Amino acid sequence: MTVDFSPLLAWPYLAALSLIAAALAALGLWRGVRGAWIRTAALVAFCLALANPVLFQEERQPLSTIVAVVVDRSQSQENGDRREQTDRALADLKERLARFPQIETRIVEAADGEESEAPSTKLFGALTTALADVPPARVGGAVFITDGQIHDVPDVNQKLGFDAPIHGLITGRPDEFDRRIEIVSAPRFGIVGEQQKLTFRVVDEGAAPGGSAEVTIRLNGNEIATELAEPGTDVPFRFTVPRGGNNILEFAVNPVAGEVTEANNRAVHVLDGIRENLRVLLVSGEPHAGERAWRNLLKSDAAVDLVHFTILRPPEKQDGTPINELSLIAFPTRELFVDKISEFDLIIFDRYQHRGVLPILYYDNIAQYVQNGGALLIAAGPEHAGNDSIAATPLSAVLPATPTGVMTETAFFPRLSEEGKKHPVTRGLEGASSEPPAWGRWFRTVDVDRPLGQTVMEAADGKPLLVLNRVGKGRVAMLLSDQGWLWARGFEGGGPHISLYRRTAHWLMQEPALEEEALTARALGRTLEITRQTIEGDPGQATLTYPSGRTQEVTLTEREPGLYKAEVKSDEIGLFEVANDELTTLVHVGNVDAPEFKAAISTEERLKPWAEKTKGLVRRLADADGPVDLPSILPVRGAVRVADDERLSLRMTDETVLKGVNSLSLFAGLFGLAALLFLISTTWYREGR
User: Fold this and answer.
1) Within a 10 A sphere around the Cβ of 394, how many other Cβ atoms?
2) What distance in Å separates the CA atoms of residue 536 and residue 637, rounded to the nearest whole number?
3) Residue 88, SS3?
4) Which residues are registered as beta bridge partners of 346?
5) What is the pLDDT of residues 463-484, one digit of tens each?
6) What is the DSSP letter of 9?
7) Residue 500 CA to chain centroid, in angstroms?
8) pLDDT of 169-184, one tens digit each?
9) 312-320 long-range CB contacts below 8 Å, 24 or more apart?
10) Residue 21 in contact with residue 46, Cβ under 8 Å?
């Protein structure tokens, strides 16, 4: 209740009148005039009436106390019975807080961090956001229901923006233990064929059983080693980079019975294999127009070391020129095909025929080179159908097609076969989608018997034109025409000879992106993209195994011929496994060093400093085998000065909201007029006597 003035005259005029009244009253009192005190009272009443004092009375309503309940819904809360403990504790806490009408509960459920961040539990950030519109004086406290693994706990000397207790209700059990594996250091790139070194570590947390841990190591899905590791000790490991492109290393430590989770028992590392100076041997049987197309393509790639020989003078040529006057370089057959054959990544025979340049035994060396993982490309011309064809040598053991001895010489458009439309070597070649194809014609091919492997391009009448085949550990390709140079020269608009030659060469050198049967997966934020390449038809469903161990059948949809894809929105973070037929692949969603997977056991330690500072309470919801036990609520008026070890103290606010104001003019209206008339009448009465 307050008193204020609402003068009927401006304050300067009112002050002047008051001074005059005061002077008259003082004069009357000084001279002892009869009734001076009554006149003075009348003048005071008159001045007060002009000043118009008003009595104000406010109607206020108490405001509620805001209590934030922050619920941890991160992935680590899926371990054991933590989710059940959380749900039970939340329901009980809401019920107990509802018994206090003056308390308003705000439930904040916080999941893992944003997609662009490393997965983590950020509960304090969620708390700050939830209380952004609440005055600090109305905050009665915050209760965290969590396993204690919070990754944004501010320094205890910082300010939270309110002065109220911080409490922690910890899920999990006090006797938990967990074993995980992590990669300490590893290279991102490696030279194909060279050794690389990385370091991994097995970590035991909590009441772990101790002892050595067995770690199984896989490279691109194939088991390559088993190591014994002492927990807490860095273990070095060396391996050889097998191929170019992505190489996936997987480290899996055997689980321990009773550990919190097996989701962090595997770790992956992706290393990009780089081929250092690919060595290609190009042997041209004789000078011809197509020779330059191969040479220009291979020389344009800075990563290729090209060794090119053209047979200009076969041994049977006798023209009487003395040997010491010849300027030709002798073909170093033994050095190339015996001593250093294993150093080449690809051997190309371009219109080569058996004319005695290579001893017959060397063809067997080339065949063994292919069987052991080498790559061979035959670019055939008319000589391949003749008597001196290399198909009549021991090399025939690895060739996918045998010539019939006939050349077909007719104009045709090279076309993709049904397999070729699905094969990554030829799928999507520019101009292939129209009929006839939007490229120039060729004019001759080598007839062959029914080939092995895949015929991905066809000539006239559906005859094989480009054949790909796997032999042992290696690969062979046969291009049954020497007319590719017409595309290089732009004849009838040319054609995609560069793409065709390059893809064929890379497939021969086992480029992973060109595998005809492959399963890959990649993470786009929280979305998992699964890709299945196949030339065998619909591959059926893929099986997706989540980090938590649950599985999901995923339907693959054909996006292009031979290319099936699916996208899955993930609610988990970690290492996923995708399987289809006999193929499997691994993909990690989220940052591999995400804090969410660094520690899995529940803990009280992270919240204790804040609880001690704010007089809060941190305790477990359950002991080793017991049920959920929630502490009672203790409302406190004013600041919480003493921590309670058994109850959740909450600071009750004294804040109110103004609902209305009642006003009463003290010297206005009938009351003021009556008082003034009474005093004036009293003055007259006194003077009349």
Assistant:
1) 16
2) 75
3) helix
4) 280
5) 999 999 999 999 999 999 999 9
6) S
7) 34
8) 999 988 888 888 999 9
9) 312/286, 312/287, 314/355, 314/356, 314/357, 315/355, 315/356, 315/357, 316/355, 316/356
10) yes
Structure tokens at 254: 């055997």
Is a pLDDT exceeding 60 seen at residue 316? no
Strands 245-253 and 266-274: antiparallel
Q: Round to whole Å and give the CA distance between 457 and 468.
A: 10
Buried b (16+ CB within 10 A) or exposed e, 69-104: bbbbbbbbbbbbebeebbebbbeebeebbeebeebb
- For residue 196 the two structure tokens come to 């690389």
Q: Is the pLDDT of residue 2 over 80?
A: no
C-alpha 439/C-alpha 415 separation (Å) is 10
In Å, the largest CA–CA distance within the chain is: 172
- Where would I find the H helices in 509-639? 608-614
Other CB atoms within a 10 A radius of the CB of residue 118 amount to 17
Closest CA to 271 of 378, 381, 368, 196: 196
Phi, psi of 281 (to 5 degrees): -105, 115
Q: Which residues touch 115 (CB under 8 Å, ≥6 apart)?
A: 525, 526
The tens digit of pLDDT for each residue in 414-427 reads: 999 999 999 999 99
| Count of beta carbons in the 10 Å neighbourhood of residue 10 | 9
- 18's tokens: 């008051």
Between CA 562 and CA 117 the distance in angstroms is: 35
Give mean pLDDT, residues 310-330. 58
Contact by Cβ (8 Å): 94, 55: no
pLDDT of residue 184: 92
In the DSSP assignment, the letter for residue 154 is P
What pTM was estimated for this model as a whole? 0.67
Asked whether the predicted pLDDT for residue 143 surpasses 90, the reply is yes
Tally of CB atoms within 10 A around 379: 26
Query: Rounded to the nearest 10 degrees, how much is the dihedral formed by the CA atoms of 95, 96, 100, 101?
Result: -10
How does 157-180 read in b/e, with b if 16+ C-beta sit within 10 Å? eeebebebbbbbbbbbbeebbbbb
Single-letter residue type at 650: L
CA 45 to chain centroid, in Å, comes to 82
Angle at 334 between CA 274 and CA 301, to 5 degrees: 30
Tokens 């073909």 -> residue: 331
Could you report the per-residue pLDDT of 216-250, keeping only the tens digit for each? 998 887 889 999 999 989 999 999 998 877 788 88
Query: Is residue 266 classed as helix, strand or coil in its secondary structure?
Result: strand
Task: Report the SS3 class of residue 537.
Answer: coil
Distance of CA 352 to the CA centre of its chain: 51
- Are the CB atoms for 358 and 333 separated by under 8 Å? yes
Taking the C-alpha atoms of 274, 277, 281 and 287 in order, what is their torsion angle to the nearest 10 degrees? 120
Strands (E), 434-573: 445-448, 454-458, 464-471, 474-479, 518-524, 527-533, 542-545, 551-554, 557-560, 563-569
| Residues whose CB is less than 8 angstroms from the CB of residue 602 and which lie 6 or more positions away in sequence, other chains included | 82, 147, 148, 149, 170, 171, 172, 173, 176, 620
CB-based contact 383:417 (threshold 8 Å): no
